[in-house]
Amino acid sequence: MAEIAVIGAGKWGQALHFALSQKQECFITSRTKRDIKNFVSLEKALECQHLVIAIPAQEIREWLKNNFIYTKGQKILVAAKGIEATTGEFLNEIYSDYVPEKNIGFISGPSFAAEVIQGLPCALVLNSTSKKVYDKFKPFFPDFIKVYYSSDVTGAEIAGAYKNVLAIASGICDGLHLGNNARASLISRGLVEMQRFGKKFGAKKSSFIGLSGAGDLFLTASSTLSRNYRVGLGLAKGEKLENILKELGEVAEGVKTAEAIYKLSSEHFIYSPIAREVKLILDGKPPKESLKDLISD
Ligand SMILES: NC(=O)C1=CN([C@@H]2O[C@H](COP(=O)(O)OP(=O)(O)OC[C@H]3O[C@@H](n4cnc5c(N)ncnc54)[C@H](O)[C@@H]3O)[C@@H](O)[C@H]2O)C=CC1
Ligand SMILES: O=C(CO)COP(=O)(O)O
């Protein structure tokens, strides 16, 4: 029996499959059959003792409900970055109905799939309340990926999800040609904003200044390799969200996560001005107006 399988063969699932195939056989599965080495059925993948699930945040509740059978005490790694828009629940809350906390971990950190699949160097954080999950998965990773451990699941999750919203904001800023000064201000204020949001949910400050927060934010908010950043560029040009997403053809988690953060910030009275303006722009507010509102007191 193979030890490890990736579930979800999108960009990130395929990149993780490539990485995890360097030292051992790694299976991969998805809802549509793909021409990838070691592609197997879901049933076969679920027989593995170690699973990496790369299904987007907004889809995972339904997927777990309809497909997931947890009977073998498998160890699970969650690769998605997002907060469920309909409920405002974090991924660890959704998964807690299916997998015991001691057997689950969450990946965070700056890691464009397009670079990982070329074997370029990368550093990730494996976040779990149980270090045993890290100890189990770490040996599976190839030499080009350095994997750190953190127990701050909430901090990593919030950082990974929030940076997607800030990447949209940064794309808007660059799309409006506001300059490097404006983008640097936006990113640094965004870092403070996500930290403030995280504090409300018990996240550790250190997660936001490390790889999971600043690392992933700096990456995503300054590169056209980021889908979320590209959504921002499109919005700044006045393109319709629907058309931007159609053209993208891949998930941009920041879109729905902006809704989730807006909801949670309203319920918990958290000051989240950048995420709020991103949500309003996604709902149709002209980006230039948002900017005025952001810089005026
Ligand atoms: N692409 C990247 O560089 C990185 C992506 N991530 C995160 O990983 C997650 C997945 O992203 P990508 O693979 O890049 O997106 P993608 O858009 O390339 O692929 C998404 C995959 O999820 C599958 N999927 C969607 N709905 C499904 C459902 N209801 N049931 C079963 N499968 C379903 C799709 O078939 C597709 O294979 C996202 O949360 C993203 O934020 C995290 C780090 C890096
Ligand atoms: O999370 C990512 C890199 O760490 C990928 O970001 P995008 O989904 O914006 O492409």
Automatic annotation (TrEMBL):
* Intracellular or extracellular location(s): Cytoplasm
Query: Which GO CC annotations does the UniProt entry carry?
Result: cytosol
Q: Which residues form the Glycerol-3-phosphate dehydrogenase NAD-dependent C-terminal domain?
A: 152-289
> Can you tell me which residues bind sn-glycerol 3-phosphate?
81, 109, 111, 163, 216, 226-228
Q: What is this enzyme's EC? A: 1.1.1.94
Q: Which residues bind NADPH?
A: 12, 31, 81, 113, 227, 251, 253
The record, for HAMAP family, names: NAD_Glyc3P_dehydrog (MF_00394)
- What does the UniProt record say this protein does? Catalyzes the reduction of the glycolytic intermediate dihydroxyacetone phosphate (DHAP) to sn-glycerol 3-phosphate (G3P), the key precursor for phospholipid synthesis.
Q: What is this protein called?
A: Glycerol-3-phosphate dehydrogenase [NAD(P)+]
